[in-house]
Amino acid sequence: MNLGDPLLWLLIVLLTPVAGALLAIVAGARGAEVIARIAALLTLAAASVLLGLRAQGTWGAYVGLDTLSDLFLFLVSAIYAASTWYSRGYLRSIARPYLTPQRYYALLGAFAFAMLLTLSVTDLGLMWIGLEATTVASALLIVLERKPTSVEAAWRYTLIASAGLTIALFALLLLYEATGSLNAFALAAHPAALSLLLAMAVALALVGYGTKIGLFPMHTWLPDAHSEAPSPVSALFSGVLLPTALYAFLRVYAVVERPVPAALSDLVIVFGVATALVAAFLMQRQRSYKRLLAYSSMEVMGLAVVGVGLGGIALYGALILVVAHAFAKSAAFYCAGNVLTKTGTTHIEDVRGLRASLPWTGATWMLSAIAVTGAPPFGTFVGELLIRFGGDTPRSRGGWSSRASSRSSSRSSA
């Protein structure tokens, strides 16, 4: 191997969080923090190299990269690094944490590794295993603050997400029966004509992975898990876990020949529009700023799924939206953690005077909130605009869906 070999950097991306997690377990509290921070930075550096190399190709039967996986690997690594560095101050604010710092940082590394593994394999079955592993690691992180509501949220998340992934597993069995393969890259290179069995597989994958994406009506775990998890974990949930689940669905959706038949693309669009509209409605009823951020993430993922269903330029818009949202929403959750530490409450009406008490947090939260709403000149605005253009092009079906999504975005910005 040489420094220009993508496999070398991919191994660093995958093995560094694992090594950091194992070392954090046997280190002291301060040592675990230092190890976790170094591991996160090394992971981000290696992922940045992969993105710069535009690494593409396969290694063996199960490992492979392309432009999409490079982008998502960088995204996960960036938010993982940010959450790891933010965690130090947040952990100190918790009086009786359920997890020791060693176990917390080990689980954080395991959570990141599971997502990175999902993005690095070509086999859809291994992607499913990686996504299932994220449930185990992240559920334990939700209960960090030892609150009854946190335990309830963790159980609800585990049960609902596992039920959804069981449906996704059945979808993969149908897909294998229809195509004879689970190699995502090979199937995408030679898309299959839509058959009844393949249509059922994609539809079930939409429901199964849609549970983890947070699509309506399978979203019921999302507001509780996001609001009860510690803020650095909430940032990982909103910023990269939901997009990782979307990535897994994209790999399944790509096996169908282009253009995707109207019935199937319309099904995807309907799920996305319904999710965005329901989330926009529920956002306006929230009194907790963490739950408000959670429903905002649900709305964004609904808009992104609309872009996937529309295809073409709208798909590029969906990817831009997801990436921009990841950075803006993670920043918002870090700010929410600072506010919670300072005020001891998540109730919106009880938070006053941030400009005086937390000036930097207040300014950052204002910018991240503007970005999350999709206002110009932020990337979320560009993404939503491309999705709108995609819905209005003559070749795209469902201009109505784009207009409905635009209305939901406008409502959430109000």
Description:
By secondary structure, this protein is an all-alpha fold. The protein has a domain at 261-267 and 277-414. 77% of the residues lie in helices and 1% in strands. It has 17 helices and two strands. The protein has a two-stranded antiparallel ribbon with strand order 1-2. A hairpin with a 3-residue loop joins β1 and β2. α5 (124-142) runs antiparallel to α10 (231-253). The longest helix is centred in the middle third of the chain and has 32 residues, at 148-179. The model is unreliable at 395-407 and 410-414 (pLDDT under 50).
**What structural class is derived from the secondary structure elements?**
mainly alpha
Main sheet record: 2 strands, antiparallel
Please state the average pLDDT score. Answer: 90
DSSP strand content: under 5%
| Count of strand segments | 2
Give the overall silhouette: globular
Q: What spatial order of strands do you see in the largest sheet?
A: 1-2
* Percent range of helical residues: over 70%
Annotation field: number of helices: 17
